[in-house]
Amino acid sequence: MDTEKLLLLVKWEMPYGKYKGRLLADLPSHYLGWMARAGFPSGELGGLLALMYELDHNALRHLLDPLRPRR
Fold first, then answer.
1. d(Cα 63, Cα 59) in Å, to the nearest integer?
2. In terms of domain of life, where is this protein from (predicted)?
3. Cβ neighbours, 10 Å, residue 30
4. Do 15 and 43 touch, CB atoms closer than 8 A?
5. Position 18 pLDDT exceeds 90
6. Of 16, 17, 38, 48, whose CB count within 10 A is highest?
7. For 28, which DSSP code?
């Protein structure tokens, strides 16, 4: 897994739709599942959403916790 792509999941916000403005790492499971069935968008966003789906589906979201910015 590419660390740079994992970092993007905790930095990028969803650019459109019901979850516009939410970090990709914080998208709900049901939405990621729907997106996987409907088809991920093309380009980098689609690749990141597919990666987030895989992390979520395999119960690996916790891997993103150390990468999140400190508040």
1. 9
2. Bacteria
3. 9
4. no
5. yes
6. 48
7. -
> Global pTM?
0.92
Q: What is the dihedral of CA 27, 25, 56, 16, to 10 degrees?
A: 40
- Confidence band (pLDDT; 50, 70, 90) for 60? very high
Of 43, 58, 47, residue with least CA distance to 6: 47
Of the candidates 37, 33, 22, which has an alpha carbon nearest to the alpha carbon of residue 58? Answer: 33
- Paired tokens of 8: 């993007």
- In the block, which residue shows the tokens 């403005």? 21
Residue type, 68: R
- Give the span between the Cα atoms of 71 and 68, in whole angstroms: 9
* Residue 12 DSSP label: -
Task: Pull the structure tokens for residue 52.
Answer: 């987030």
* Structure-token pair, residue 50: 């597919």
